[in-house]
Amino acid sequence: MKEHRVVGKHLPRPDAHPRVTGELVYGADFRLPGMLYGKVLRSRAPHAKILRIDTGKARALPGVRAVLTAADIPPVLLPNTISDVPPLARDKVRYMGEPVALVAATRPEIAEQALSLIEVEYEPLPVIDDPESAMQPEALLIHENWESYAAAEGIVREGNTACHSSLHKGDPEGAFASADYVFEDRFTTHSVHQTHIEPRVAVVSVESSGHATVYSNTQLPYWIRTNVATVLGASESQVRVISTAIGGSFGAKLLPSAEHFCALLSKATGRPVHMETTMKEEFTDAYPRHPCIIEIQTAVKADGTITGRKARMILDTGAYSGSGPILASVATLVLGGPYKIPNLDLHAYAVYTNKMNFGPYRAPSGPQSNFALESHMDLVAERLGLDPLEFRLKNIVAEGDEAPNGQILEGVGLRECLEKAAAAIEWDKPAGPNRGKGLACGWWTTTGGSSGCYAKLQPDGKIVVHVGAAEIGTGAVNQGVAQVWAEIMGVDVEDIVIVAADTDTTPYDWGSQGSRTVFNLGNAALRTAEDLKAQIMQLASEMMEADPLDLEFADKAVRVRGVPQRSIPLRTLAEKSMAEKGGIIARGSYIRPKTPYDPATVRSNFYPTFNSPSFHCHAAEVEVDRITGEIKVVRYAAAHDVGFAIDPAGVEGQIQGGVAQGIGMGLMEEIIYQEGRVINPSLTDYKVPTIADVPDVDVIIVEHPNPDGPFGAKGVGESPVIEPPAALANAVHRAVGARIRDLPITPEKVLRALEAQG
Amino acid sequence: MSHVSIILNVNGETYPLEIEPHRTLLEVLREDLALTGTKTNCLRGECGACTVLIDGQTFNACLYLAVRADGKQVTTIEGLSQGGSLHPVQEAFIREDAVQCGYCTPGMILSAKALLDHNPSPSDEEILRAMAGNLCRCTGYANIRRAIRAAVEGLEGPS
Fold it and tell me: Whole-structure pTM over 0.90, yes or no?
């Protein structure tokens, strides 16, 4: 591997200082003078008709400046794959917590009091809290007029099934009929929450001209702009969205939460309006992970060669479809797995229920399908009498192999990940009493979408880079992208200044999500830097009267190759340009080439390829207490093929943090619903791993470069949450023979399984 | 609502205030004194983001009435760096890559500082106990443990 000067180096975060001093202003710290405080009145019923809303008493409360219901706002539906969300409930509510009215007041306590004065009369309807019942033809419709909703072309939907995605390849019926063995298993997972430590916050000011300025801790300012413009009935150019610093997001801050409400309240009051989600609201009206039911079947030869796979996955998408259709599509690719299986019949359904809008949480639909698939793989191996590692190595894809959707795979480091992760926990050495070792492997995407970039050279020699993607805390923008820039321009990371995420002043970007940030912004950097260097070269060649072909970038200067004393510092070039030519300003953009695949394999699919895919394997060693059922994670290794680690500190951080969230999902986290009501909406009863619950992770970086990535890089932000639940389930089973098929793997479930063994 | 007169001593500076007695120290620090380094989140003492030191002990400011802090020494994250140079724990957090989004960081640093002020050579178990009230979702905690260990070794000096 070529040795680089800046990329590939483990560097300290350049933006850590204001975070450790408390100076950094996050969304939750942001204030505008004279702002009002907004609150949301939420449905108390999981499914009901709204008969009457009376806001008179609330409006009369001193300090209240506005009370809004659906009757006061345009009858729009928010844009999506299926546009089915009214900003405020109109004639009915479909989940407990659905927004029904908005209040703005001079103090938060007054706004809170006003909520209690709004009278809403509901006529309860039967609650549908089980997606399998919801899918039945005779089930009560949650959206009676589902057919009237604008929806993406090609979507297959019916009644409470918002989207049915499928992937079909080869002759699965034939493969199953002629197999030596067919094995079938069923698994279930529940919702888990991103639990970012900073709440979701927006402060919005709508001027009398109609122009709106939105300050929000959003990961995706351009999508927020679209939504705010929609509810205001304004054009997108009348809305400016600025991302503040962000205290964690993990997908929760991609979608509108407070921004559109604050915009409506600000328009009604003529004052800026602030809104902050409470912890209870996070657990009752947010975008946590889809609960899933997965049934999976494998056709296999006696020697362990997999010949076919069938799967049926139901994603409980909650009261509104949200990212359900996209995630059903993604699920079919995960269920195929990074395995050579020529015959596939995979179905995923996003189904409406009377629960909150489950949505994009880091690798959405990944850990659920991977939990089922990799638990099932261990079960198949056990039934065949094969070692789980050998069984996987026998069936995994390699360079040039075909993925489930027909795409050809490049940069496939999966074998190396499996071997290294297994070796890290001494796979071949038997675990001690009540201890067990488990593996899980998988693959994931590096999301596309376009990224623009402007760059200018400053008189102090620094390069200011404008990007539309927000720094969400991973370091992808402030460190990873800065390292790319420093490498290309021959400067240090400290010489790069990043200006990010302002829809008026930074170019369009599909956002910090989907493991896409360093990949796409890095490629945009390469293109923008070409323009920047060309302009610098042009000026330098004029000033030195030299041929540009004889010039090179080095030591923060442009110099004549072989004659180092003939050089001009970048600073000087910038000063001269500013004085005489208006400055050196460059631009570029990037959107990745489409990944070829076989469209005949997929139907109603809104995410048909895993671009520049990453490959990974996790290995866990657990110790189970047979008396209490408690599980201790003794050792954990995570091997990730990231193509090339541009920012190794950032890559390690993503893997360590993702494993912690995965351990949470695997062992302790669950949003518990009872008939449409969340019964544990607080951190006391929703258990998040503490410092005592997560061991050190043996992070193994594997590098099989991808041709499309900057320096060969692939995404890594999401994938570390995918494999922990399955790795832990497999380890627990191998420790004490308890096979848990429902997440989280709690002590109670382990004890029940041990009792059943007798 | 009637107001109570108190004098808050925060990071060595005195603030005479007239405040309503129901208000929390977290609210008063952030809204009245514009010291937003102490973070807001769960408001129920479950996450530790609002950790402050009161007479050297850790407290969740969201559960501490401001009037109760009258006459006590309050230390927030803003009080740790002196004359532009960082506290050893702050430096260790940067050096050991223990900061990602940084929102839990002020609370983490104060809990770590309180631990080391009372116990300059804590065992691994003692570190876990002292820090278990501060949740982090970004880092997975490994580098936070390394940072605290590095700060301990820094205090111990070359052996």
Answer: yes
